[in-house]
Give the backbone structure.
Amino acid sequence: MKYVDEFRDPKAARRLIDEIAVLLDRIPAAKQRPLQIMEFCGGHTHTIFRYGIEQMLPGRIELVHGPGCPVCVLPMGRVDDCVALAERPDVIFATFGDAMRVPGSKKSLLQAKADGADIRMVYSPLDALELARRNPDRQVIFFGLGFETTMPSTALTVLQAQRENRDNFSLFCNHITTVPTIKAILDSPDMQLDGFLAPGHVSMVVGEGPFEFVADTYKKPIVITGFEPLDIVQSLWMVIRQLAEGRCEVENQYARVVPKQGNPAGLDAIHQVFELREFFEWRGLGSIDHSGVKMRDAFARFDAERKFAVPNLKIADPKSCQCGEVLKGVIRPWECKVFGGTCTPETPLGALMVSSEGACAAYYNFGNLPELLAKRNDKQRHEASA
Amino acid sequence: MSASNTAAKPRLKGKTITLAHGAGGKAMRDLINDVFVDGFANETLAALEDQARISLDSLNALGGTLAMTTDSYVVDPLFFPGGDIGKLAVAGTVNDLAVGGAVPLYLTCGMIIEEGFAVDDLRRIVASMKATADAAGVKIVTGDTKVVHKGAADKLFINTAGVGVIPHGIDIRTQRARAGDVVIINGYVGDHGAAIADARGDMALESHIETDCCALNGLIAAMLDVCPDIHCLRDATRGGIATVLNEFADASDTCIRIREEALPVRAEVRGLSELLGLDPLYLANEGKLVAIVPADASAKVLSAMQAHPAGEHSAIIGHVVEAPHGSVILETGFGGERIVDMLVGEQLPRIC
């Protein structure tokens, strides 16, 4: 495919990986322990596993798979709220496909649909607005989730609903923001990351500026990264090159898509419709200040949380899950106590096993499961005897 | 189709199916005679007994093992680019027989029709079933009709069962994959799954993708002609070729390694999959088979496949090795490799 195959060239990847190996020799820390580089975005995680990138890299690099899958980090209580809204007899509940399987404390949207709730899978918020136009006697609620990537399209849809004066369309807003979450990870006392790949699609909207604090304050290299396999390998090379040269900057590998200033029209729509929430809870990470958005008062009539009663209960993550430690790179997904046992993609307990972009699901689906479980069991035996 | 009347003149009235057409009386008799008996047109069905009667001698002459299968078809939409539910219902069951090495002979046809269904659509589907059966050399010899209340079924469901005979000396089983064997596919993967996604109208694509739905018994006969010792054979329907390969690896306790670059995928299917975050390895097919054959026979099997219309884009996509046991490994075009596991639930489009 034109404009795609160019980014999947194995020879170019091999050249970059060879250069990474040379650069690693110049980094003192890489001689003590593997360098940990976090890709924040679930889309990157998916590419890394789909193309088997991790095994192609020198052993002195460990990829840590961050919390950037909005489906994975959705807390159970919010899923319960979705189910409660969807089960109202007057409601058509519209959602993206991969949110259907996320478990709530009692059921997922997929189970609620099987139980009779009118839940429709859509590809864009505008499809949900179209459902509202076609079903004037029903209330259509769109389940808005995602980072700044999907926020503009949701905001523009709300603005369109306002222009149409549509009184049967509303948004259950679960949009989250990237920067406070990266900051929360960097502030974690057990953080041991050496560099970051920044989310390309988010950056397309917000630009380069919001990531400058990673380099300026926390002194970590960060590279805005595209989603093709060669994008990932090139960005890793750029991070390693910064470490080898003793630099820490925001670099933009994805300049073909990401302008330095982002997308002003998208940002304007976001700011018109949304404002920061004081707190938002993340599955596996707990509450993070200012990490979610809610609808401004001017759009209250399109806000499902104000229009309908939602239970809004906080449901604690299962105690056995070690999602938080995985997200911060403290342990590898397969080292978690419940990985592959009680926590599998069929019956996910933890956040990261839910979506195909979650780190645990990626290891489960694309890794060598028997080998990973054997390694985990060996490690546990070793720790027990120590 | 268990009404007993020999009148063959078309007398079906009205443009839609009503509950009366399933009530066992005159309206049902008219439907059966007019649409099904005339549509499927063969002597065994026209006899309108409660059962089809098949001489054992005719079966014995073909081989030593009777093969039976059944499948139900509930596809939505009923008509899609390159096919419809009727074509699917015949080709799918013919293929389920043929991949066991059987010569498919006879089919049954059970129809569950929702009240209000258009008679013209039913005729169109029956004509499609007849054309597909004729092309595959099978006869639809008995059946059943039910009409259910509006809302109790989604327009039309079809069940077809099939009977065939496996000739002496053919032993195709999932357990027979051996290290050194070669894995062959008969063409582009994922066309059917992509065509159905496209036909649902969710994506408004510019290029249209046609289903690959077709009967594969002719192709399989050509393969068995040059290599009666085919080890494994299965049509890759729901769950795609990833599922079939896992079934082979699991049953034979081997590892199957496939090469992404060797895997035929149409650019349109790749594009749709990229857009939705789906994997063509897991997309449904209705005219694709995966064969595992001894290495020394692989060249002649491949040539025979490529010479057949249902296999002109056939390709060797990988081979069987010992370990890790029970696994499928994809060597990516990018130079890495990854496990290809069975699908969990259904593939759902990603958010971003």
